[in-house]
Amino acid sequence: MQLEIITPDKTLFEGTAKSVTLPGMGGGFQLLENHAPIISTLKKGQIKIDTGTDTQLIEISSGVVEMLKNKVIILAEPVKPAV
User: Fold this and answer.
1) Using an 8 Å Cβ cutoff, are 18 and 33 in contact?
2) Where are the beta strands (DSSP E) in the chain?
3) Domains of the chain listed by start with CATH number
4) Spatial separation of the C-alpha atoms in residues 50 and 42, rounded to whole Å
């Protein structure tokens, strides 16, 4: 499936993924290829991306995810550094 993770400043990830594990407001969940269409809010936590050859972790403070026709778009707020 195609995955794109976007913040207000830049694109954090763009490419193909086998699975994406997300920190949903009601608990963590995973998206796989051919998942049913979904829109969900995300809370602070890690997005885990399995590309089939490696795994990447991206920290977010909040966000929204949409999956439709094997394309996942995540609009995320990055974790702000401590002052």
Assistant:
1) yes
2) 2-6, 11-16, 19-24, 27-32, 38-42, 45-50, 55-68, 71-78
3) 2-78 (2.60.15.10)
4) 18
Rounded to an integer, what is the distance from CA 21 to the centroid of its chain? 7
Residue reference for tokens 């795994």? 55
pLDDT tens digits, 6-55: 999 999 999 999 999 999 999 999 999 999 999 999 999 999 999 999 99
Residue 82: band (very low, low, confident or very high) from pLDDT cuts 50, 70, 90: low
CA distance 56 to 50: 7
Tokens of 67: 């999956």
Phi, psi of 38 (to 5 degrees): -155, 145
DSSP state of 25: T
